Structure formats: C-alpha cells, structure tokens
Amino acid sequence: MMPKGMASEGARNGNRPGATGPEGRGGTAFPATGRAAATGGSATPAAAGGTAPAIGAQPMVICEDVHKWFGAVHVLKGVSLQVQPGEVVVIMGPSGSGKSTLIRTINALEPIQRGRIVVDGIELGPDLHRIEAVRREVGMVFQQFNLFPHLTALQNVTLGPIWVRKWPRRRAEELARELLARVGLADHAHKYPAQLSGGQQQRVAIARALAMQPRIMLFDEPTSALDPEMIKEVLDVMRELAASGMTMLVVTHEVGFAREVADRIVFMDEGMLLEEAPPDRFFREPAHERARRFLSQILHP
Ligand SMILES: Nc1ncnc2c1ncn2[C@@H]1O[C@H](COP(=O)(O)OP(=O)(O)OP(=O)(O)O)[C@@H](O)[C@H]1O
Ligand SMILES: [Mg+2]
C-alpha cells in the first residue's frame, strides 16, 4: 500500500543533477533536504541553516497569473505569488476565498486551467506532467490529520521513507524516532491515532511530512480542528520548523503565530490576492477595506 502522491526514490534521484548532493542544512535537527545544490547552486542563507529569506535566490514557489475553475465557478482569478527559500508566508482570507485551492494547486492536488506554477525550479503546467517531481518537493499538512488509523505513530512516519524512498526499516525508524522526538512525541511512537489527542495527531502528521524531507511545507489550517489547549503545541512545532529555515506556506487565522513567524501575509478574497504585506503593516493598517473587515472579524469575533 503506497499513499497517493508518493513516488519512488529512483525517480527522485534520476530527476535532476545534484539531487543526491551533500546535506544542506547542517546544524538543524530537522532532516536536511540534501538538495541545496539543486537550486541553481546558490548557497542560500536558508540552505546553510540560517533563517533569513534569500534575496536573489531562485524562488521556491512561483505562481503566475494562476486561474482555476471548478466547472463554471472561477475560484482562482489570476493569482501571482512568489515564496523565497526560507520564507514563511501566511495566507489569510474569508471562507471560500480560494486559500485551500491555491495551496492544493501548488502540491499538484488540483490542476489549473491557466497560468504557471513553478516549485523549486520544476514547472507544473496545466497538464500536471511533473506531478510526481513536484510532490517530492512538497510536504503537506491538512486540517484533518489524515493519519492511517491502523498504523502506529511510528509506522505512519516510516511509511514514506520505506515505501517511497526504499529505506531499510531500521534507518526509517531511526529518522522517525528522531522526528517524533522533535515534535515532542518520543514516548508515543507505539500509539495508534485513536490513542492520541488531536494536537498529538497533528504533530505526528507534521513528522510524517518531514520524513519525506521536503523542500517546502504547506499547511492548510493545521490548528483549526483542535481544541484551544492543543493549538499551542502544534504552533510551537511550526515555529521551530520555521526557525530551522524551512520554507513554509501556511493558511491560518492564528494572528499571534502570523505576527511572530510570518515574513509576509497574503490576503485573499474571492479568488484574488488582494494584498501582500509584512505582518506589522498588515495587522496595523491593511490597505484594503475587505482586509480591514476580515481582520476586525477575526480579532473581535
Ligand atoms: N472540489 C471542489 N469542487 C467544486 N467547488 C469547489 C471544490 N473545492 C472548492 N470549491 C469552491 O471553490 C471556492 C474556494 O474554496 P476553498 O476551499 O479554496 O476556499 P478557502 O478559502 O480554503 O475556504 P475555507 O476558509 O472555508 O477553508 C469555494 O467557492 C468552494 O466552494
Ligand atoms: Mg480552506
């Protein structure tokens, strides 16, 4: 059984030169991507273990004039967005504005009908012909954790490395234990999802995504299904991940997290990207009336 979206290690390595190069993120406790050399040879601060966005490096994500229709419904209406290596971008916006759809297009979970998406130099055209190559770059964490209920936390995390990357079980378990410890679950490796709280399950889901050593992590409202007391433990893991230099695109309405961790806030409404600003400015004086209204709703519900 191989979860959807996972591809073979052989395909990964055959894909681009430098793909099996030396590990690029020395000093961080999260697994290195091993593909710093693949981003055009530019030794970015993020790839070297720093946290600053790399100015002038090849963007990790490029969306250019992206259009998406579901049948007759136009849900993305010309979205253009770039995410630099090491950057944390938070997407906010009212329900139905297209946030989930946008990040799903970046993970090739949804095809687009017009425009261009490039992930770490891999062009994802309207025909999704590079779908497997792109998915190898991207880790995704959903609102509903989507763990396999019949597998333990450890087995959920080792699945990708064993089946996709063809790692020996011992090596996969070593990495999985390291990642579970990293998300604060060293003592829960043997438990099944039903034996874990929502916050714990979401942290297993994060460890599982990281086990595939992605270049970018996408989060779609990772805390919105959680009870308040569990939100912090998940956000803390995400904070640490951001500090380790991971490129992150996060749909969330957690204002504290966005203020503290995001390099930029992107505000979407009705399938359009209305505003892009550093958190300071966005939360102090959003330029658009629609963004002001949205903020007053989430800040004073
Ligand atoms: N599979 C689908 N088929 C048809 N329409 C869809 C599908 N998925 C999303 N839509 C529509 O696309 C629009 C954007 O939805 P999307 O889920 O991206 O919004 P969102 O900003 O993530 O909203 P929320 O904050 O509620 O999660 C909505 O009008 C939604 O009804
Ligand atoms: Mg959504």
TrEMBL record:
Q: Where is the composition biased (Low complexity)?
A: 28-49
In terms of InterPro entries, this protein maps to:
AAA+_ATPase, ABC_ATPase_HisP-typ, ABC_transporter-like_ATP-bd, ABC_transporter-like_CS, MetN_ABC_transporter-like, P-loop_NTPase
Q: Which residues form the ABC transporter domain?
A: 61-295
Keywords on record: ATP-binding, Nucleotide-binding, Transport
Keyword match Transit peptide: no
Q: Where is this region: Disordered?
A: 1-49
Question: Which Gene3D superfamilies did the record assign?
Answer: P-loop containing nucleotide triphosphate hydrolases (3.40.50.300)
Q: Which GO terms describe its molecular function?
A: ABC-type amino acid transporter activity; ATP binding; ATP hydrolysis activity
Transmembrane parts of this sequence = none
Keyword Nucleotide-binding recorded:
yes
A Pfam match is ABC_tran
Q: Which family does it belong to?
A: Belongs to the ABC transporter superfamily.
Q: What is this protein called?
A: ABC-type polar amino acid transport system, ATPase component
Q: Which organism is it from?
A: Thermaerobacter subterraneus DSM 13965
* Taxonomic placement: Bacteria, Bacillati, Bacillota, Clostridia, Eubacteriales
